[in-house]
Amino acid sequence: MPQRLYNASSHGTLMAGYDAWAETYDRDVQDFGYATPDAVAAAVCRHLPKRDVRLLDLGAGTGLLGETLYGLGYRHLVGMDGSHGMLTQACRKGTYRLLCRMALGRPLGFPDHYFDGLLAAGVYTPGHAPLASLFELSRILRPGGMIIFSIKWDGGFKEDVLEVLQQMKDTAGWQCQSWSAAYRSWPYADETQEARVLVYKQTCRS
Ligand SMILES: C[S@@+](CC[C@H](N)C(=O)[O-])C[C@H]1O[C@@H](n2cnc3c(N)ncnc32)[C@H](O)[C@@H]1O
Predict the structure, then answer these.
(1) Ligand 1 atom closest to Cα of residue 29
(2) Which CATH number goes with the domain that contains 116?
(3) Among 103, 124, 89, CA closest to 12
(4) What is the pLDDT of residue 1?
(5) Cβ-count burial of 56 within 10 angstroms (0-12 exposed, 13-18 middle, 19+ buried)?
(6) pLDDT digits over 54-108, tens only?
(7) Could you tell me the sign of the dihedral formed by the alpha carbons of 190, 118, 106, 83, in that order?
(8) In this predicted model, what pLDDT tens digit does every residue of 117-170 receive, in sequence order?
(9) Residue 129 Cβ contacting ligand 1 at under 6 Å
(10) Chain mean position to CA 142
(11) Which of 86, 27, 28 is nearest to 57 (CA)?
């Protein structure tokens, strides 16, 4: 991922960066060996095996995760992202029932406890979706639903994630189901960057 996106000074600057990248994003991340959508999709198959579940792809981007899940038989896919350019590319794939332009970190226009699963690939990473947005996610996830998301696994950011997850456990009864092993998220572009896919179950209404 281009370093300038990690260092974007504001949400608007970050979204402008993704708008500018959108057309070549799929080709570029394929060249980088981007591993995260497949890693998240594998966790979805394991923890939400029924194909009729309602899934929301957070920071869906150009829809790589939706494309994989659709191929695996999931049909109730909704996507959201803050970048109009990325959503335009996702729309072309024709795999989401609905695509919405919204910002993580602000109230989301979905009903309470609507989704069975909330998914995020490459979105909870420095300079991207604020970790505090996890509290709003809890509102739209049904009790018993799963949140399956990748996390960039590095020093300070990792510590912040663990702190917020402890708060989610205390306030929304989030229960850890699994953590993947750390893997290289962009193996052909940067061998040092690692991520994990985390799976949590929401055990109560919040
Ligand atoms: C690295 S891309 C990942 C896209 C897609 N999930 C994938 O795996 O290819 C990060 C995406 O998160 C979106 N994003 C980052 N911060 C966001 C925010 N606060 N609200 C909504 N979307 C955001 C960006 O627009 C971008 O599409």
Answers:
(1) 9
(2) 3.40.50.150
(3) 103
(4) 67
(5) buried
(6) 999 999 999 999 999 999 999 999 999 999 999 999 999 999 999 999 999 999 9
(7) positive
(8) 999 999 999 999 999 999 999 999 999 999 999 999 988 999 999 999 999 999
(9) yes
(10) 17
(11) 86
32's tokens = 């980088």
- Mutate-to-test residue for ligand 1 from 15, 32, 34, 81, highest number of ligand atoms within 8 A of CB: 81
Give the pLDDT band of residue 3 (cuts 50, 70, 90).
Answer: confident
* Cα 178 to ligand 1 centre (Å): 23
Which helix (DSSP H) or strand (DSSP E) does residue 21 occupy?
A: helix 11-32
Nearest atom of ligand 1 to the alpha carbon of 150: 8
User: How many domains is the chain built from?
Assistant: 1
Structure tokens at 179: 């953590």
Domain that holds residue 148: 3-103+110-202
Regarding pTM above 0.85, the answer is yes
- Across the chain, which distance is largest between two alpha carbons, in Å? 42
